[in-house]
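Here is one chain, start to finish.
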Amino acid sequence: MLQEVEYLLAFCYTKAIKNNEMKRNLKTMSKKLDIYLANLAVNYIKLHNLHWNVVGKSFKQAHEYLEEIYDATTESLDAVAEYQKMTGDFPKASLKNYLELATIKELESKEYKIDEALNTVLEDQKLLRDLATKIRNEADEKNDFGLVALMEDEVAAQTKRIWFIESMLK
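Its structure:
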């Protein structure tokens, strides 16, 4: 009987340690997801700015492509925030929070030539891809398969956009 009690106590202690470790991991990942979410939100507004204000000979194609990207960004924004909710976190949801956390910077409201707009989007897509890759790799180390899958989808989409934009700029 004493052996069973010792085993049960050891099991509970191990579970408590793992539970605390999971909570710390979630808190660390939560901060990174807050930054990623903020970058998506600022990027979303920035893409609208470029979509509305792009000018040039291939205006229609650039205008429509920028709309395609901001529509996809809406899906990403929602997926990341919903993941945070599923894991017991409360996603940031104010422009003030986003501007404090984001590493992507806003743009002035003015006309942008197509190459300038595309280069701006390219730079932001690379930043988002790199951040998503870091989050994915850390989530993999912590066996957070849901977050790994989410970030792999993000990386794949951004990698394809980077390829498209680089091809458009040649």
